[in-house]
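Record type: ASSEMBLY
Status: queued
Input:
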Amino acid sequence: MTTTGYIGRRLLQIVPVLLFVVTVTFVLINSIPGDPVRILVGPAADAAAIEAARAKYGLDQPLYVRYVRYLAAVATGDFGTSIHYGGVAVTEKIFERLPVTLLLLASSFTLAIGSAIPLGIFAAKNRNNGYDHLARVTSLIGVSTPSFWVGLLLIIVFAYYGDLLPPSGLIMPWADPASVDGATSRLDVLVTAASHLILPSITLGTLQMAAITRIERSSMLEVLNKDYVQLARAYGVSERTILRRQAFKNAQLPVLTVIGIQMTTALGGAVLTETVFNINGMGNLIITAVRAQDYQLIMGTTIFFAIVFVLGVLVVDVLYAVIDPRISYGGGAGE
Amino acid sequence: MSDTLLTVRDLHTHFRTDAGTVRAVDGISFEVQRGEVLGLVGESGAGKSVAARSIMRLIDSPGVIVNGEVRFEDDLLVGVERGDDPDDEPRQDPEMLSSREIRERIRGREIAMIFQDPTESLNPVFTVGEQLSEIIGLNRDVSTAKAKAIAVERLREVGIPEAERRMDDYPHEFSGGMRQRVLIAMAFACEPSLVIADEPTTALDVTVEAQILDLVKDLAARYDTSFVWVTHDMGVVAEICDRVAVMYLGEIVEQATVDDLFHDTKHPYTEALLGSIPRPDRDVDGLSPIEGIMPEAINPPQGCRFHTRCPHAREACLQSHPDARRVDGGDKGSGDASASATASADDGPTTASTTADGTTLTEVAAAPHRAACLRNDAFAEAGYWESEPLDDAESVSESAASETGEVTETGTGSTFDPDADPLLSVRDLRKYFDASDGFLDRLRFDRDAGLLPFSVEREYVRAVDGVSFDILPGETLGLVGESGCGKSTLARTLLRLVDPTSGDIVFDGENLAELSKEELRKRRKRMQFVFQDPQASLDPRMTVGEIVEEPMQAHGLYEGNREGRARELLETVGLDADHYNRYPHQFSGGQRQRVNLARALSVDPDFIVCDEPTSALDASVQAQVLNTMKALQEEFGLTYLFISHDLSVIRHVCDRVAVMYLGELVELADKDDLFESPKHPYTRALLSSIPVPDPRVSRETVPLSGDVPSPIHPPSGCRFHTRCPSLVAPAELDLGDEEWDRVRRFVRAVQRESPDIVADDARATYFPDGLPAGDAGTTVEHALSLAADGAWRDAASLLTETFVEPSVCTSEVPALESPDELDRIVSCHHYS
Amino acid sequence: MVPVSDSTAAVGDSARTGGVADADERSAVSRTSQVVQQLKRNSASRVGLYVIGLVTVVALLTTIDADLFDYQFAATFWYHPENDPAGSTILLPPVGIENSFGTGTWAHPLGTDHRGRDVLVRLVYGTRIAVQVGLIATGIGMTIGTVVGAVSGYYGGWVDDVLQRFVESLYAIPFLILVIAIMSAFGKELGIAIVGVSITTIPVFTRLIRSQVLSVREMEYVEAAKAAGVRDRHIIFRHIIPNSFAPVLVQSTLQVGVNILIVASLSFLGFGVQPPTPSWGQMLAHSRQYMIVNPWFSIWPGLAILATVIGFNLLGDGLRDAIDPRSND
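Status: finished
Output:
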C-alpha cells in the first residue's frame, strides 16, 4: 500500500473522532442545569421573549432533533452566533483568533524541537558525564514546572527588570505597518512581531522542550545499541556519521510519538500562555466565552481546538510514515 | 606455504559490572592463515562473540580489553599489557593503531563483519542500495555512482534476483535469508582479507542456511578471503571450517584442524560436546549430555575450568590450571618447550586431509593441534589417569541430570503398538487467521472504486490448511518444517489454544472441536503443552512451587498434598525438591525447561505437545532435557507430539515424522523410512540441507530456489511447485526425462540470473545435445535472447508460462498416496 | 526460534541476575523485593520519596485542621490562612529584603500577600488542595481507565473497537480545554475540577493497560496456564493483572505530578477552588498584578508546585528504572 493510501485511511479515521467530539460538546452544553434560554436572552426578558427565543434557537424541539440540527449545521460550517460579541458568527470570531494561536504554537514548537533534538543527542553522546547529568536535571525541572509560572518569571526578569522585551500582546508578522506602533516598514513589523513572540514561545515551549529532550536522549541511546549501528562501526563508519545518518532518522520515531502526545499539552498551554501575556488568541477566546457563558462560542472553540489537535496529530503520523518505510505496509501475521 | 594473516596472543577481555568482573575472554591465543576458515565454537557464555569483536576493538563499555596482542598483517590492532596489580591501568603498546587508524584503515577495508541477526543488522529506514553504496563508497574510495554499480554487481553475485530494482527496496521487503545475502554482499564488496562472521546462519532455516553456506564457500574461494566463523553448531563447523578453536568459559580448550577435532579429539569438553549432539545422518543410541551447567564467567572454577563437569576430573584438575599444549607429536615452537611429552604421540603428525567440501588443508596442516587438559600433560606418563576419577559429589554439580541420564541409556525409543487405535485423530484441520487488525485496516485505497475511493478486503493467513493424521498411544510423533510453515499453529489448534476454523480433532473418541469451553477445560488435564521459550513460559512473579501446583489446583487434584507432589515432581524432572520456593529467574535455561516439564506432568497427562522444547538451549543442555523427556515417556507411558525445526533432534526422539510445508502435511512416515528413503522432494531437500557434524561425511544439497511463498496467497496446485526441483514435465511438451532435467536446470539458472546464461556457450552448457524440439526449443531460444538483452524478468516469466504453468503440479492438488491409510502420507504428483 | 549468542548483552545479563550457583546462598528473592532494593539504591528516587512524604504529611495535617477544626490550630499558633488580618502590611517581601511596602521580617518569613496574609501559611495550607486533587483525580482516572483498558484488551472484538473509539475521541479534546468545558457546564467548584481531571486521566491509563494486557495475553506463561486448564478468571487475576501492573504503577506516580500541574493551571485561570481558600495556582493568579512591586509573591507558589511535581517525577522515573533496567541507561 502507498503512503497516499495511508494518509487517506488516517483522514477517514478522523471523521468518527470529530463526530464524537461534537457529540460530547453538545451533550455537555445541553446538560447544563437550568434553562439555557434564560442565559441566552438575559434575566430581564419576559415570558414572551423567552418563548420567542426558544423558538428562534429551536430549543422547543426535543434533544435529538436539536442534536441532528446542530450536526447538520456544523457539517456546513455553521457554528451559530456569539451573544457576547453581539451576534457575530462564531466561525468569524474563531478565524480571527486562530492565526494568532497557530503562530504561537508554531513558534514554540520550532523553538522546542530545534533546541531539544541537539540537546538530547548531545546528552546521549556524552552519556553519564557531567553534561548528560545537567541535561537530565534540566529536563526534569522542565517537565515539572508550571508553564504559566515560567511566563510570570520571564515577564519579571525580561520585561520589568531587564526592560528588554514586551510583557504582553502579540503582533502578527503580516500586519499592516500602519497599524503597528512605531513601525514604518515591513522590517519594523517583523522585528516587533519577533520581540513579542519570544517570551510566550519560551513559556509555551519549555515543557515541550524538556519532554522532547528526555525522549530524544533515551531513544538515541537505544538506537546506538542496535545491531545496525554496531555493523556500521564494524565497517569503519565514524561516530559522527553514525549519529548524523544511521542513528538520527531512527531515533526520531519515538520522538515523533511524543510530539504527538505533547500536542494536547501544548494546546492547553496555549490557553495559559495567552492568559499570562494577554494575547488575543483562541485560548483567551474560550476563557472569555466561559466567563460570559456564551455557549455557542464555547462549543465552537472546543470543537476547533479538537480539530487543530487532530490535524496536528495527523501531521505527526504522516511524518512518521515518511520516515519509517514499514508503516504504510500492513504487517503480515506470522506463524 | 603458510601465510599468517591474523595473530591473537593472550587476549583478555573483561566486563566490569556491579556484581564483579566478568572474564568473558580470558587468555586466548590463535592464528588465522590466509584463505583459511577458522571456527570459533562454544556454547552460550563461552565468550566466542566477545573474542571475535575484540579483534576489531568493537567492545562497548563496560567491556575492556585488559591484556593481549592482536596483529593483523603488519598492523597491531590490540597491544595491551596488564600490570601485576589488577587495579593498574593496562599499558598500551605505542605501536598500537589509534581508534581513528583502526576505523579508517582496518574496519571494513581489511576486516569485515557479518552478524547473527540479519533482521537487526540492516537499518530499517534506509534502502538496501543506500546502505550498500554508503559502506562501499567509504571503504573503497569510489564515487557514489561507482559504489552503486559495485553494489548491484555484488547483489547479483550473492543471488538476489533483479538486483538493480531491489536496490531501492527497504530491508523489511526482503526475507531473512535474502537479508543475510545482502550483508554478505556488503562484506565482500569491500574486498577485505578477513571476514568475522558471528553466527551468521543461526537465525535462518536449514534450507536457507545450506544455501548461505554454499554461497560463502564459493565466494571465499573466489576472493581468497579468510574467515573467523563464530558458531555453536558443530554441523556448521564440520561443513565450513578448516580449523577450529573450541572455547569454554573464556578460554580456548582445544584447537585443531576440523578433521582432527572430530576424529582425534583431545579435550574432554570437545568429546562431551560431540557426544551430546544428535546426528541427522544416523541413529545415536542415547546422547551423553554434559553434566551440570556452565559456571558463571564472573567466578570461574579454580584449576581447570571444566573440572566441575568433566567425567575424567582428578584431584590435580582442581588445583592446577592446564596450559594449551601441542598434542600432535610435532613440536617446532620454541615457546612450548615444556610440552615435550604428549599423550597421543602415536597418532603422528596431522597429514593433509580433505574436508567434505573439497578444500584441501595442505596449507594449514602445519598448524598444531593443541589442547588444554592435564590428561595430555606429564601426568599421563606416570599412569595418573589410570587412577579412579573424583567422587561425583565433588566434581559434578548439583544437577540430578545424572540420575535421569542413567535411566535413558537403556532405551532408544518408546515402545508403542502401531496397530492400536489412535489416541488423537486429526481430520482436515484448518486454521485461518484474519490478516487485518480491524475494519479500517481492511480498507484499501482504490482509485477505481467510484464515489468513495476505498474498497474493503478480507485477507486470511492460511496457517494450517487441511491437515489429517493420527497419533498412536505411546508414540512420539515428530512434526518438522521451516519457520512459518504452520507447525506451531497446528500444535496450538490441536489443544484448542486457538480455535480451529474447521475440521475435527478427535481425542480418545471425543471431538475436541465441538466441546464447550468448560468441558474442554476439564479435558485439559489429559493433554499438556511444553513451550519453546523456557523463560517466557514461566510467570516471573510466581515461585516454582506455585507454578507446578497451578494446574493441580485448576483441576482439583492432589487436594491437601500439592506441595509434596510438586516437590516430588521437581525431583522426577531432575531438579531439587528444595527448588520449590525459588523464582524462575534464579534458574538456567535448561532448568527452567525442567520446571515446564514438571508443570506439564503435574496433572498426570496422557499426551504432551512439545513445541520446540529444546531449541532455546545449548547442545549439552539439550541432550539433558531430551534424555529426561525420554525417561519420563517410559516411566509414565506418555504420548508426545514433538515439534522442531531441527531434524537431528527429530531423528533422535521420534517414532514417526510428519513434514509440513505452507500449512499442509507433505509427508508422514516412520522415522527410518523418512530419513533413509524420503519421497517428497521437499523432505529430500530438507534432509539434504542439514549440516552433518562430521567433516568426513559429504553431502549433496538439493537446491531449493526462491523463498517460501506467502501463506495469504499460497500457490495453486501443489504448494511446493514454485520451489520444487523435480517438477513434473508438462504433458503436451513431450520431453524426455533427461531433456526435462536440462530444461529445469536452465529455468533455475535464468531465475537466478546466472551469468552462464549470457555467456556465449550457454547453449552448449545447458543443452549439450542441442535444444529440445518443438515449442520447448523455441521458448528456450527466445528466453536466451531476452536474457542477453538484460530482460531477465521477461525471460523468467516466459519460461514460467511455458514450463511451469502447464505442469500438473501447478494446476492440481496432489492426491494422497493412500488416502485411507494415514500411516504413510506423501502428497506429491510423482507418487499419486 | 533459535538459541545462543554469547553477546556482550548476555554476559551482562547473567552477571546481573546471578546464576543458580550463588542463588543457593541467597534466600529466594522475589521481583518485588528486587525492585525495592533497586529503588533504595537510587538516590534520585530517594529524594523523590522524601519530597512526597513531606508533602503528604503536610497535606494530611492541614486537611485535619481545615476541615475538622476550621483552622483553629493555624489561627491559634500561627495565622489564619483565609481571613484578612487587621493591621498587617500588604505585599511584604521575605526576610531581609526591602521593597516599597517595607522590609521583610521573621514575623512573615516569606512575606505577605495583597491582603496582608502570611504567604508561608497560605503556601502550607495550599498543599492539601494540590495533593488531594492530584491523588484523588489520579486514583479515579487510574481505576476507571485500568478497568476499561483491561476489558478492552482482554475481550477484544467489537467491545474493544467501541471502547477504543470512545477513548480516542476523549483524547482528541486537549485536556485542559475538556476540563474547562466541563467546568463551564457544571460549575467551578473543586469537586467538578476533580471529576474533570479524572476524566482526562482515563484515556492515559486505558491506552497503557490495554497495550500491556495485549502483550501479556500473548505471553507463553498465559498460554501455558490456559493449556493447563486454568480458568479465565484465575488467569486474569493471577497472571495478567499482576504482570501488567508495573507500568501502571509508574504511570500513576508520574500522572499525580501532571494532575497537580493541571489543577494549578485551572486555579490560575480561576477554575477550581475559590477564594479565600488558599491554593497555589490561585496565589499565582493573584500575584500577577503585583509582579513589579513584589515579585516574591509569584516565586513561592511556583517553587512549591515545582518541588512537589519533581518529587513525583523522580519517584516515577526511579520506579521505571527499577522495574525495567534497560529503560534508561
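Annotation: The CA atoms of residues 370 and 803 of chain B lie 56 Å apart.
Annotation: The two ends of chain B are 57 Å apart (CA to CA).
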